[in-house]
Amino acid sequence: CVPEIDFSGIVCDLRGTKVKDFNTGDRVFGIGPIGFRNVGHGVLREYILAKHDHMTKVPDNISLKDAACFPATGYTAYCFLVEKAKLKKGDRVFINGGSGAVGVMAIQLARTIVGSTGLVVATCSPAKTDIIRNLGADEEHYSSRPFDVILDTVGNDHALYSNSPAYLTPAGLFCTIGMVEIGSTVWSATKRLLQLLSAMIVPVYLGGVPRRHIFEPLNIVHSRFVAMAQLVEEGAFKAVIDSTYKFTDALDAYDRVMSRKVTGKVVIEVNDLE
Amino acid sequence: VEVPIPTTCADDEVLVQISHVSLNSAI
User: Fold this and answer.
1) Surface-to-core class of residue A144, CB atoms within 10 Å of its CB (0-12 exposed, 13-18 middle, 19+ buried)
2) pLDDT for residue A58 is more than 90
3) Which of A7, A17, A258 sits opposite B21 (nearest CB)?
4) Sign of CA dihedral A87, A261, A234, A62
5) B26 pLDDT exceeds 60?
6) What is the pLDDT of residues A123-132, one digit of tens each?
7) Could you tell me the CA-to-CA distances from A62 to A42, A57, A59, A94, A264 in Å, in that order?
8) Is the CB of A268 less than 8 angstroms away from the CB of B12?
9) ipTM of the complex
């Protein structure tokens, strides 16, 4: 099975297709088959067949290396903060897991949207506080007014949601992205999935938490992906690269991911096509 | 393992030569 879904590259053949919005030689970035474990082919290879509505052109001011960091994580941050939570200027946002791949995107995007009158609070390990503060986070520890939006990019502790009435406004939205940690068992992953489903469907009069909760798998909508790319071009968020590996050193890249010390993205250079 | 270059495209697909890939630990 060829893994991974986030890619950048160059369009090299349009023969046999009805695609009109790309030309040979275009720099593109996008998301490959999300269920690659089922179909057997992800994007960590030299050539792929990509769905035209799962990708778009790379903005001229972004390198192909940086572009590879955005597809799934930038799109996820965009969908939850902009499309679902409808974040606006002055809002207060809490991001659990601020130094992860989605977290670094979410902090930057949230900072751009809420502006100087809003608040972006994030958690991270002590060694990474300077990094996420430079991305736009205001505080690492919260102790004042409730938040309008909570984005949980870690997702391993249901108590963060079940206790949320203490720190999330009644009209606020709790978004869960992370669900399965490295090393999870089938049982722990199933239990977590059931918790997330119950959080969305159990009404308050049956003991549900009186705060709105959403959790949904990655679902690519081309117009949203293009909107995310527009924000990348405008500088709303930038790539945060933890480390870069050659294609032949891919296993070392996975060792780095498994170390749990990653800040942002681990990138593999398959062919430097710049 | 040698992975062959795709030679045919569906109507909604394009052939892309990969430059960079970023890893997703949670997927």
Assistant:
1) exposed
2) yes
3) A7
4) negative
5) no
6) 888 888 888 8
7) 23, 10, 6, 28, 17
8) no
9) 0.87
